[in-house]
Amino acid sequence: MTKWKTGLLLAVLSLLVSGVHAGHCSVRYENYTGGAVNVHVSVGRTTEVLFPELIAELIRSEVKGSLDLEVKESSLYILPKSQNQSDVFVRTVSGQNIPINLIFGQYHDVRVQVSFKTGKNDKEPTNNINFSIALMKSLLRGE
Asked: What per-residue confidence (pLDDT) applies to 48?
């Protein structure tokens, strides 16, 4: 019975420890509204930043050899080789210029999925609801 309790305790502790670590190195969603996109990076670890559009151009300013960047369609892969501060900008096919803010630490984002927030999409549901309410009122009045 004691061995069983010890085994159960070890299993629970390993799940908790792996859950804490996975929480720091997970997929993160970021809504781009005009500022910089924050990306948590770690030296020697690759992070993917996925954009909703194809990447047209990559602009970078860095100490030579401190950062490897690779673009594949709508993904940007970042591999820091040292903690030197770098400036990275992504230009999408629609012409949006997005600054990438690299935040160095022990934990890194495995994948950051960026979405674009536009005012048009934010207003559509409200307009549809208002239209539906107006339509229901008209039907109830017999108009």
From this structure: 96
